[in-house]
Amino acid sequence: MKLVTAIIRPEKVDDIRSALESYGVRGLTVSHASGYGRQRGHTEVYRGAEYTSDLLRKTRVEILVPDHAASDIVDVLVSTANTGRAGDGKVWITQVEEAVRVRTGERGDAAV
Ligand SMILES: Nc1ncnc2c1ncn2[C@@H]1O[C@H](COP(=O)(O)OP(=O)(O)OP(=O)(O)O)[C@@H](O)[C@H]1O
Ligand SMILES: [Mg+2]
């Protein structure tokens, strides 16, 4: 299994959810995040006003997926999150040792 993590613009989360559901993703975790990238939070504009903090509000989306699906899911995330402007976010993949579906005890790909 892989864990796909995406840091995206908060206003993109509904589009991302729809796109992932269309792809067939059956679960995900969304959490609030803050951070900065290469511009160190200085030059991005949020809803028309320049943000005054170094840390910009972002949304983290995490999806546990079978190995074979990870690359396509990254493509879905990147194409949906892209606006062409600085601050669109970042997506990465990490290897996952094991996952368990708590109710059934299923493990591995069957659990995600
Ligand atoms: N190297 C990194 N490690 C962890 N999180 C990061 C990293 N770079 C960016 N992020 C997270 O992603 C968010 C969005 O990053 P951002 O899109 O600004 O990246 P960037 O590399 O500056 O690209 P761009 O030039 O398109 O803005 C940041 O606010 C931060 O939360
Ligand atoms: Mg940036």
TrEMBL record:
<keyword id="KW-0805">Transcription regulation</keyword>
<keyword id="KW-0597">Phosphoprotein</keyword>
<dbReference type="InterPro" id="IPR002332">
    <property type="entry name" value="N-reg_PII_urydylation_site"/>
</dbReference>
<protein>
    <recommendedName>
        <fullName>Nitrogen regulatory protein P-II</fullName>
    </recommendedName>
</protein>
<dbReference type="Pfam" id="PF00543">
    <property type="entry name" value="P-II"/>
</dbReference>
<dbReference type="InterPro" id="IPR015867">
    <property type="entry name" value="N-reg_PII/ATP_PRibTrfase_C"/>
</dbReference>
<dbReference type="InterPro" id="IPR017918">
    <property type="entry name" value="N-reg_PII_CS"/>
</dbReference>
<dbReference type="InterPro" id="IPR002187">
    <property type="entry name" value="N-reg_PII"/>
</dbReference>
<comment type="similarity">
    <text>Belongs to the P(II) protein family.</text>
</comment>
<dbReference type="InterPro" id="IPR011322">
    <property type="entry name" value="N-reg_PII-like_a/b"/>
</dbReference>
<keyword id="KW-0804">Transcription</keyword>
<comment type="subunit">
    <text>Homotrimer.</text>
</comment>
<keyword id="KW-0547">Nucleotide-binding</keyword>
